[in-house]
Amino acid sequence: MSESGHSRYAGLDLLASSVLLVGPEVEVRYANPAAENLLELSLKSLQRAPLTELFTNGQELAALCAQALAHQYADLRQDLALQRNGREPLHVNSIVSALGEGELLIELRENVQQLKLDREERILDQSQANKELIRNLAHEIKNPLGGIRGAAQLLELELPPHHLLELQEYTQVIIKEADRLQTLVDRLLAPHRKPHIVGDVNIHEVCERVRSLILAEFPTGLTIRRDYDASIPEFRGDMEQLIQVVLNIAHNAAQALKARIAQGDAEIVLRTRVARQVTLAKVRYGLALDLHIIDNGPGIAPEIRDRIFYPLVSGREGGSGLGLTLAQTFVQQHLGVIECESRPGLTDFRILLPLP
Prior knowledge:
The chain folds into three domains: about 5-110, Beta-Lactamase; about 115-195; about 200-355, Histidine kinase-like ATPase, C-terminal domain (Heat Shock Protein 90), CATH 3.30.565.10. About 45% of the residues lie in helices and about 25% in strands. The protein is built from twelve helices and twelve strands. The protein has helices at about 5-10, 10-15, 35-40, 45, 50-55, 60-70, 110-155, 165-195, 205-215, 240-255, 260-265, 325-335; strands spanning about 20, 30, 75-85, 85-100, 105-110, 200, 220-225, 235, 265-280, 285-295, 335-345, 345-355. Strand 3 and strand 4 form a beta hairpin. Mean pLDDT is about 80; it is low at about 1-5.
């Protein structure tokens, strides 16, 4: 690009939004750095490329350009899902403006709300698949477990007296391991069996119960800071389930903070706020509880960050990997969602529940 070309587009380079300048044949003449980042293509790759080659459904954007040219200097705005070969669709708000002499300016802004809805839908689908898998797997395991335990007990009765103590050790190993697996299976099935007991819930009572339980287990080196919005109304829900949700998350946080607890600077923050005009599981609510459980620990390991709500996935040795799965199940039973953001020094679990 010539020096005059550089100066012509210098102002566009400074924009935070993604901008494409295209000619009358909808070929790209210029893309600013933000557009390069959004499209994950360099300016060199984008220049002279028709929109119909950049996106498999590029004709939709090209049609907007044709309309803008037909009505000179008109702005056309539309939400688009731009399809790209081998990659996730790009959900954007597009604004097409005719500049004159056949040139058009296309501004692309990533549609964060649509991305959030898509992510929630994937989480719900995955959660439902997990539930079905757990139910089927648990029932398949339960029946043979009972048979194995019963056979070990019968075998123990038939052991010769002169080798009883020596061989009984082995049968007891079989019985105890069968019991351990039976307990694990029961815990997997528990969220789907437990009745949903509905009553009036004060979220701050829930937080205070959890706070006292955690501080009883970790009395020194850990601060649990309250950051409550006292205006949050009571809502209908199962208080015991919600205590279990917050306790599971806060207890995981305390376990992850053990090094900082030893240093005396570990902190968990319980923060409540009201969120307005929130979409949860494709339903729009005017008000929602926005509960955050934040810790200053090492963060969740990157290799399991996208799988922390899957059953039997744990970030610490000896963990069952069921705490967060249970929390997600209970939150979904309350028509809410649970999200997590994590990096070294800050992990933030966010729970959104509809309010009356």
